[in-house]
Amino acid sequence: MFLLAIIGYSFIIFGGRFVFDETAVNLPTASTVVAQDGTVVGKLYTENRDYVTIDQIPDHVEEAFLALEDQRFYDHAGISFPSVARAVYRDILAMSKVEGGSTITQQLAKNLFLFNDKTWMRKTKEVMASIYLERNYSKEDILELYLNEVYFAHGIYGVGTAATYYFGKSIEELTIEEGAMLAAMVKAPNTYSPYNDIEKAKQRRDLALQQMVDYGSITAKEMQALQAKNIRVQQQEEDEKPWLDDYFAQVLEELDTVYGLSRDALKRGGYKIEVYMDPMMQKMAYEKMQADEYFPSASEAVDGAFALMEEDTGHLKVLIAGRQFELNKTNHLQVPKQPGSVMKPIAVYGPAMELNAYHAYDYLPDQDIDYNGYQVNNADGVFSGEVTMYEAIVQSKNAPAVWTLDQIGISYSKSILEKMNIILEDNGLAIAVGGLEYGLTPLQVAESYRTFIHNGEWLESRTIHSITDRYGEQLASVEQQKNQVFDPQVAWDMVRMLEATVDHGTAAAGEYPKALAGKTGSTEHSIVTGKTKDAWFAGFTPDYVVSTWIGFSEISEQNYLTSGSEAPTKLTKAIISEINKQTEIKEEFEKPDKVTDLEKPIELPTITDVTGSFEFGGFSIFQGKLFWTASPDKRVMYRIYEQRDGEDPLIGEVEGIGQFTIEDINVFNSGDYYVVPYNRLTEREGEPSNIASLSFDF
């Protein structure tokens, strides 16, 4: 019997290791995504617990729990033998498991390892696990685990989470009576929750305060003053913020693909993820996305996506994944869409200028050309014969884009796109007008357009500023990828052309008072002739890059847009106009150093009023004078020709003025002259003027 007693005692003392589970001690802790201003973007958890250390928990909060649950906590070795004996005695009388009689250590052991298993052996296992905890953990460690493990109703675990949930405070800010109320809830959280029964909660809290007097942590006088106070908890109104889910979804994607943190790891790991989201901008964009006026459609199924990125850093400030986006639903920021003419600057004209063989004012064919069976029409069905690249971009003409891509080569264009992390399986000239097999995501579009406003550099966009684990250690950041795609001069020339596109081209719809550059895009509906399937605006201010898409998750006879790219253009301008009211956006684009500014186009006048006369003066006594009405644009040059048999000689040239002096003239012979305007940017002449004759009538 003695030997059996020794074996049994040894088993209880040393057998706790067989009950103990190392993983259970690592309490599952919620991971929280927060903006830099402290706004909580979202949380992931299996148990809603914000872990706090014993150093963070005020002494009076610890004392409230000890007074009510285990006043001899710092004196015993993990178990209360009288309580255990009493519990066993009552269990025997009842012939079933009816009473606990547990220390804080025993409660922790039961909750971590035994899952409320009411069997005869459970109490023995509980004692074994408690002794093991006491032998291997300090009292402070055990109390810390207990205060973080305990349940507080309404899905709330741990005193840190409870402090925020019930009182809207951090654990460090809790008052004595607030700590007492939390301690009072432990015995029956749902029963004593102030949200369920405020009277029972107060009675139980007042008992806890009485116990604190017995424990010696407060005086009777302090107790009376504290018991006189009503329980004041914060209102738990349903505070829905649907505009946060979109950004949260992208953060989860980045955590997985960039940092290798799965959702399962996040649900238990207690990470704090600080992100670049601007809550004010995010909400404004969401609210504008709800306005039906920006979504002209034959169907209510119309959807959209919007991204706003800080141009200097690539930090994503606003992300809208859908008009009514919910987690685990279609995220339009990550789903490829047909980009339409948004492709032209990044796949055709930017690469062409990068070759230094094509420039903004070079003329390109605007003709109906058959490329081995592939032909493309302009949106308006009109071919101009030839247009400058500048005009082709501003007017979004298709034919010049296809011709240019054919000249520079598809493989070369794709090599440029690859530098912007755009990998295409397509190998046809339809790339020029966005006719892709899979398309681009709004985030890819935003990243690619950032190259123009940032000296030709592509930069990977990011949502995450920093990640801190539950122990306060910051995870190493992962460097953003970047590539030099275009020469700074090419990038700046594109800025000016895209600025003109917004000013008086295809992106002129809507109102925005400050500098904005961008390109529109739209794709034809595959079922309903003449209607639009996808509509885009992509562009930038001096501070931000934006990408806006409007369309449908599924294509059908009912799902089509009744308007083209003016819809996303208006929506974009509406969003950034609202942002500009709160956050000052720069007025103008600033030309980078070491680039030459791209001049605005020169429009040649039609001259019909050339007149001529003789005047005294000059070496030959008489001079001939020609006069005409000059263009307000002083950059226009005027070439003066004398009409003769055969080739008409150029006799002079002036710039910006409407007159010319003919020095060497024979007054006895009449001469016929005309003026031709000249564009030095395109190196093209305009239409000849009327003929002016100089002669004396004798």
Can you walk me through this structure?
- With 698 residues, the protein is α+β, with helices and mostly antiparallel strands.
- It folds into 3 domains: 2-31 and 47-227, Orthogonal Bundle (Penicillin binding protein transpeptidase fold), CATH 1.10.3810; 289-582, DD-peptidase/beta-lactamase superfamily (Beta-lactamase); 611-694, Immunoglobulin-like (Sandwich).
- The model is unreliable at 7-11 and 94-99 (pLDDT under 50).
Write the SSE topology.
Blueprint lengths: L1 H13 L1 H4 L2 H4 L5 E5 L4 E5 L3 E2 L9 H11 L11 H14 L9 H11 L5 H17 L2 H11 L6 E2 L1 H9 L8 H10 L12 H18 L4 H8 L15 H15 L5 H7 L2 E4 L3 H11 L13 E8 L5 E5 L22 H12 L8 E4 L18 E4 H6 L3 H11 L1 H9 L23 H12 L3 E3 L4 E5 L13 E3 L3 H17 L12 E8 L7 E9 L3 E8 L14 H17 L28 E6 L5 E6 L9 E6 L7 E6 L3 E4 L8 E9 L4 E2 L6 E3 L4
Parallel strand pairs: 1-5, 3-4
Antiparallel strand pairs: 1-2, 5-11, 6-7, 6-15, 8-9, 10-12, 13-14, 14-15, 16-17, 17-20, 18-19, 18-21, 21-22, 21-23
Helix pairs in contact: 1-7, 4-10, 4-11, 6-7, 6-8, 10-11, 11-12, 15-22, 16-18, 16-19
Characteristic key phrases:
alpha+beta; 5-stranded antiparallel β-sheet; 22 helices; 3 domains; single chain; Immunoglobulin-like; 698 residues; Beta-lactamase
Beta-strand residue fraction = 15-25%
Low-confidence stretches: 7-11, 94-99
Task: Fill in the CATH topology of the largest domain.
Answer: Beta-lactamase
Domain module count: 3
Structural class: alpha+beta
Globally, the shape reads: elongated
Strand order of the main beta sheet, please? Answer: 7-6-15-14-13
Number of H- or I-type helical stretches: 22
First CA to last CA: what distance? Answer: 155 Å
CATH class of the largest domain: Alpha Beta
User: For the report, how would you describe the main beta sheet?
Assistant: 5 strands, antiparallel
What's the gyration radius in Å? Answer: 39 Å
> What is the architecture of the largest domain at the second tier of CATH?
3-Layer(aba) Sandwich
Total strand count, please? 23
- Quick one: CATH superfamily of the largest domain? DD-peptidase/beta-lactamase superfamily
Mean pLDDT: 90
Helix content: 25-40%
Oligomeric category: single chain
GO biological process, one term: proteolysis
Protein name: Penicillin-binding protein
InterPro entries: Beta-lactam/transpept-like, Glyco_trans_51, Glycosyltr_51/Transpeptidase, Lysozyme-like_dom_sf, PBP_transglycosylase, PCN-bd_Tpept
Keywords: Carboxypeptidase, Cell membrane, Cell shape, Cell wall biogenesis/degradation, Glycosyltransferase, Hydrolase, Membrane, Multifunctional enzyme, Peptidoglycan synthesis, Protease, Transferase, Transmembrane, Transmembrane helix
